[in-house]
Write a structure and sequence with these properties.
114 residues; mainly beta; 7-stranded mixed β-sheet; 11 strands; 0% helix; globular
Length: 114
């Protein structure tokens, strides 16, 4: 059974930082592409950042230079360090793992107050 468990969300002021973590089980973590998506109320889920098994990364334009995705294959965990947070970063953030199928975590709320 594949499980993805996110942690680290919360409330922060504009300009602050948060770190999200996603710990996985039931998959061969080192072989899968991991990603963070987010969904704000009334909007579609969007890809925020992605890291491949070879450590290739992608960031959506709005977070480049502010967010950093990383993975630790030793503990089956992917993280998203979020700096210089803005109110428009407020959303539920979801971790995903993609191999032959895509698996999702339950989501973590991130709220940035102005």
């Amino acid at each position: 059974q594949v499980q993805l468990v996110e942690s680290g969300g919360g409330l922060v002021q504009t300009g602050g930082s948060l770190k999200l973590s996603c710990t996985t089980s039931g998959i061969i973590f080192r072989l899968v592409t991991m990603a963070w998506y987010r969904q704000a109320p009334g909007t579609q889920r969007e890809l925020v950042a992605r890291i491949t098994s070879g450590d290739g990364t992608y960031y959506t334009d709005s977070v480049k230079g502010r967010f950093l995705i990383s993975r630790d294959n030793a503990v089956n965990t992917v993280s998203l360090q979020m700096n210089s947070l803005k109110p428009e970063d407020t959303a539920v953030y979801y971790c995903s793992a993609t191999s032959a199928a895509t698996y999702w975590g339950q989501g973590a709320q991130v709220t940035v107050s102005s």
